[in-house]
Amino acid sequence: MANSPLLDGPSGARPQKFITWQRFVVYGCLIGCALFFLFPLYIMIITSLKNIDEIRAGNIFVPTMHPTLDAWFKAWDSACTGLYCEGIKVGFWNSIKITVPSTIVSILVASLTGYSLANWPFKFSEGFFSVLLLSSFIPYIVMVYPLVIITRYMGIFSTLPAVVLVHTIFGLPLLTLLFRNYFASLPGELFKAARVDGAGYWQIFFLVFAPMSMPIFTVAVILQVTGIWNDFLFGVIYAGPTNYPMTVQLNNIVNSATGGKAYNVDMAATILTGLVPLAIYFISGKYFVRGIAAGAVKG
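User: That's the sequence. What structure does it adopt?
Assistant: Structure tokens below.
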């Protein structure tokens, strides 16, 4: 009985206190950074819920006691975006028409290219990959005018297909790098086993690799959707006045006004413009880090 381990007292590491000075510093810094970045959003939201008289009275940090959504309805349906007073809804649907095909086509092409470079090497494949990687470091502004000439000769300048084409081209280098590194990090035995079983190029991609690659596909979707949706330069150059995306129309709302400045409408339009990428980050943000880390194991 004297040798019973139950009489020797507790064993193992001593439980640590939940609140320590290290955790206090870390969480304090995190909370401070979060408040710093959320404070402008707070100002935007409460300003969009005020009427113009409350805004002119000052007290920008104080929420209104009589919130109204009139500014939101006006920003969406009847705000003037330059020559037209149809609200930001027109730009919303233009952004949808640009973002969806650009994202799908660029991800499909980049995933197949990365899969081919990682598992089906061909002659000069490394040189091709080096050129593709180098092109991702070329500033966008260098290619603006050549693409204007190309889209004009193709007969699609000042149309939505021109913007889709440009976004697809500029999204390929980075996405190809991500997919190539991700597919190279997968166990080579999977590819060899599929080949032994008689699977071909398309079967291995769609039945073996694609189901295992949801994290990197999520990363690609987040990068493309946020990048394309938030773009201003390509939209204002290649879309044409009747096809402006949401960001260009937001700029027109903020910078063009008759009479007094409607700050509540500006804030509502800004929040509406950023809702889509914000929602995507909230829904799939945890997969973003997982996909980036998975693609960084092996290059």
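The CA atoms of residues 195 and 204 lie 8 Å apart.
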